[in-house]
Amino acid sequence: MKQMILIIIIVLALSGCSNNNIKVETIITLNPTIEPSGTSGITPTSTVNPTITPTSTSSNKGVNLSESDALSLIKSKLDEESLRVSSLGIGGIDDNGNYIIRQSSKATTVVMEWYHVNPVSKEITCEILKDMCLITVTNSSLPTQTPDINSDHLKALELAKAFAKEKLSKFHYVEGITYIEFANEDNGKIVFHVYNPGSGMTDTIDWLTVDLEKNTVTAMFNKDINTVTKATYQKK
Question: Is the pLDDT score of 200 beyond 90?
């Protein structure tokens, strides 16, 4: 009888130890670090929430022209004489996102051309001369050198310059900018064209006829200012 009771006690003791172990294991396994479903064992990296750069910005970086780039592009298309007598400036941006470059006469401030520059393709279009503008720019009608003229023409030119400086300033004659160009001879008289760069063409101020025999200069348009001009040179 005593042996039976001892056996039962041992069995109960062993059973208690086993339950304790199960409880300990249960506590350990039921309290793990909780992670969202599907993320267990995955360590988050900086690529989960990267800084997003728009594709268009990245691909166009360093390609699109700035306003100053567009201005420089137009300047590179103009010859030295055009740049001498005109000025360039930013005119804004058109409805298509193209830069507008203004070219105006230094003498009169009259706009000679409006250039539209595509900032991506660098294509240039013109408002005034349309498809002819780049041809005109590269083959400018503005004189780049003094034509071959004889000594009488040179004497007449000095008279015409003196007359224009004194009488035509109020009509936008600007010394060093306005052109006084030999045109032709008419009955022994020498005719000069006085003009500034204009809107797509020349902006005529007047036509001056010089009579070296009488030392006179006569304006065709502004006849009220006609006068006898003291000759710088006397015809021999």
Answer: no
Phi and psi (nearest 5°) for 93?
-130, 135
Cα–Cα distance, 159 to 154 (Å, whole number): 9
Residue 221 region by backbone torsions, left for phi larger than 0, else alpha for psi between -120 and 50, else beta? alpha
- Structure tokens, 53: 């750069």
- Residue 114 β-bridge partners: 102
3-state secondary structure of 165: helix
Q: Measured in whole angstroms, how far is the alpha carbon of residue 120 from the centre of its chain? A: 12
Three-state DSSP at 201 gives coil
Cβ(112)–Cβ(102) below 8 Å: no
- pLDDT above 70 as % of the chain: 59
How many helices, marked H, and strands, marked E, lie in the chain? 6, 9
DSSP single-letter state for residue 171: G
Residues 204/195, Cβ–Cβ less than 8 Å = yes
Length of the chain: 236
pTM above 0.70, yes or no: no
